[in-house]
Amino acid sequence: MDAILIQLLNGLDKGAAYSLIALGLTLAFGTLGVVNFAHGALFMLGAFCAVTFQKILTISKRVKDESITFFDAYKDQPYLEIWWGDTGAAIIDYAVPLSILFAIPVMLLIGVALERGLIKHFYKRSHAEQILVTFGLAILIQEVVRHFFGANPIPTPAPDVVSGSAAIGSFLGLSDNLVYPWWRLIYLFFSGVIIFAVFAFLKYTTFGMVVRAGMADRETVGLLGINVQKRFTIVFAIAALVAGLAGVMYAPILPPDYHMGMDFLVLSFVVVVVGGMGSLEGAVAAGFLLGVLQSFASMNEVKAIIPGIDQIIIYLVAVIILLVRPRGLMGREGVFEE
Amino acid sequence: MKGLMQNNLAMMVLFSIVVLSAPIWANPIGANYPDLLQKFAIFGIFAIGYNLLFGLTGYLSFGHATFLGVGSYTAVWSFKLLSMNIIPAILLAIIVSGIFALIIGFLSLRRSGIYFSILTLAFAQMAYSLAYSVLTPITNGETGLQLTQQDPRYLDVLAGVVVEDGLPSTNLFGMLMKANGGYSGFYFAALILILSFYISLKIFRSPFGLKLKAIKSNQTRMKYTGFNTKPYLLTAFVISGMYAGLAGGLLASIDPLAGAERMQWTASGEVVLMTILGGSGTLVGPLLGAGVIKYFENIFSALNQAELIEVFSFMPEFLQNILVFICTPFVGEGWHLTLGAIFMLVVIFLPGGIIEGLQRVSGYIRRLVGFDKEQVNKESKEERA
Amino acid sequence: MTHILNITGVNKTFGGLHALSDVNLQIEKGETHAIIGPNGAGKSTLLNCCIGRLAPDSGSVTFNGKNMIGMEPHNINHAGMVRVFQTPEIFPELSLLDNVMIPALAKRDGVFKFNPFRSMIFEHKIRDEAMSTLADFSLDQYYDQHAGSISRGDKRRLELAMGLVQHPTLLLLDEPTAGMARHDTNRTIELLKSEKMQSMTKVIIEHDMHVVFSLADRISVLARGHIIATGTPEEIKNSPQVKEAYLGESDNE
Fold this sequence. Notes:
The structure holds 3 protein chains of 3 kinds. Chain A is mostly helical. Chain A has one domain: Orthogonal Bundle (ABC transporter involved in vitamin B12 uptake, BtuC). In chain A, about 70% of the residues lie in helices and about 5% in strands. In chain A, the strands form 2 sheets. A two-stranded antiparallel sheet of chain A has the order 1-2. Chain A is globular. By secondary structure, chain B is mostly helical. Chain B has a domain of about 250 residues. Helix content of chain B is about 70%, strand content about 0%. Chain B has a two-stranded antiparallel ribbon. In chain B, strands 2-3 form a two-stranded antiparallel ribbon. In chain B, a hairpin with a 2-residue loop joins strand 2 and strand 3. In chain B, helix 4 packs parallel to helix 10 and helix 4 crosses helix 14. Chain C starts with a strand and ends with a helix. Helices cover about 40% and strands about 25% of the residues of chain C. By secondary structure, chain C is α/β, with parallel strands linked by helices. In chain C, helix 3 packs across helix 4 and helix 3 runs parallel beside helix 5. In chain C, a hairpin with a 2-residue loop joins strand 4 and strand 5. Chains in contact: A-B, B-C. Chains A and B meet through helix 6, helix 12 and helix 15 of A and helix 7, helix 14 and helix 18 of B.
């Protein structure tokens, strides 16, 4: 029972990441009609926003280490600590949550720049060419990151307060041994908030309504004389932001490295397809579903029955879905069904 | 010139001369290593085969490295179990990867467009993950599949070949692949390349090839014209999978090793890039693309900052510093950065690849010289239409 | 007289809209049958139901005694029923000659044939046939141009040539002269009336009454999903029902 609950939470965590990436992918595909293979790279860039912000906060000065008295020792002390003492140290401790503030403008800017500079020119070109150019872009972004940050994962810890585990077992009246990392719970909650915010935005704002109408019937919206160009840019920037925020929050769970984007991208594409190309609800549902499935498949009991199932479960599900129900779980009939 | 190219025989003779004389013309550009020449040939085969699918039908597969990997594993197993002779290894590599292509292609081709791309990608990732995990008894996981002295090699034993000490070497009926400083291996690969190119040429210029091009152009119309397009696509998929298997088998024949990283989706991406860079749907384009990429990979990944400083040493110092600073990220470890940049630049500015670029340049030159009857004819025809 | 195409009781709805309701139509062997009707009367839907692009909700379509419903488009083609599309469905990247050679190859090779080692250069018979068909439509001088680069009227004629080269038993023509200049229209009429095409059964959907009355042996009028009249051109001209439903409406346009 405990193990199942833990796996469920793990699955939801993973699923939250898939959902957030898939949400942006679907948004871009549904409205702009663009297949963006660089979307995983945006997730990775988000994670590296956290890394960068942490690095900026911890820019240090070489000072004499007072705690060692019998010889002259030096240590690196962050300027923030030198200037503000404990307050500074606390700010550094909260680097990851604070970097959200840093990531928002950065990711929006990246989104706008990419759409204006590159994606815009590919609306009218074939899906194959879109895939190819964004694939090239993904490699490019990934390699630039590697050039500046190296190939190794960079630990980006969560704040001290939440670095421990929550005793959810005793909270739920189950075994006391059942604990789960606080940060993962926060991450889950945060993802829920973002997903909710995106849906609320699409549902209750005029802008969102136009976007949804565009996903349902792109030609009509084009005919309404609405400034589609500008909206496309904003939609793409939002998609980039959602992926970026997911990346920021995921950094303490998985120390970011330069190829994490690619790993998540392939899975997220599968999620989009399973959920139904162009269906936002489908993307979210499929993201969580596949996350949980993958998590359960990695249990030893399951692996004992079907070895290796944890490695391929997602792809297997995708293949079956695509062959049996091409429009995906929640895709509407005839939409992007080829 | 154009008429000459239309003639299969003339084209094959020319092609063979160019390929077989590679050690001579590769010398001045510093590419005359058997290792590199072999790579040109093998990846050329891979790209030629990929082009038969993507270039002719327009179906973008993101999983062709799977077949390359399957080919390599099969060949190494053939060396282990049957014989160090490369003929059975290569034949088996082609057959087994063909079977894989048949299954994956049959399932993936149920859908088209991006769905097809994603399905092939999903299968490739599945194969890659399995090779790393459950299939370790077959693939030897992360270490990769290698030869050992104790391998049974039943056919060799039957023939009375005894391995005295060390690992046995791959051979073609006794002629070692690494003989003559590796040139034996190259010439063998080159002969296979010529044969592969010939088959590709025949397919391009056959009714079958024409129908594939028509499917790329307008698949719906093909159905109403009376063709069942599925078996056509599947055949193209299997053929290109077999080409990939052949390339994988050759890789293993020259260096009897097989690892799962050969099946990674970035490897699939590389063959797509080769094909596009050269010019997808053209006969020689993919081969050019493979050559260019392998050549520059060789140069760029070997360079480092110190060598860059030397390269730019003829310049004034401040210019030299700037250039070195700009170029450093693109060389050595940064080769992939260059690759990504090339990828984007080609797709954006030159979707037809090098071949299109050459055509544009030659068209421009001919117009400059004012000696372009064909163009004039065409334009006047268009005016009439 | 034998009925080559038999459409009985065909219904098709889109959402709540009755595109076709209980359509009955018999096409006789050798005749040229025109289907006319105001816009949105369901003409194209009817054609799509015959050719396998749409499946009717109920009813049957038999061709030469064989049921056509649920059959794959390529099998319908080989049964001898060939459609010429309204918007040119050609192979824009291929040459005009290739565009016509492909349907000719379909006729010879069937739904699938793996022949990678034949050479197109030696397909003299197919090439000659395609060339002469192109010549019939006076397109032969552009034979090596990309089909995408020729004018719209030429594309329509190419489309016709692609249908004719297959020598179908029944040719379904969806507005074959729409968008053509007057002299091209007349040429097309001549061609459809020519000796070569005389024996071929043809179903024509057409707006242009000049074309309809110069070609059709019989005419059916489709309005709001119903066949309201079938008869010889004279009968249709004088039918008060038709005047009301069709000609009346077109006056309002």
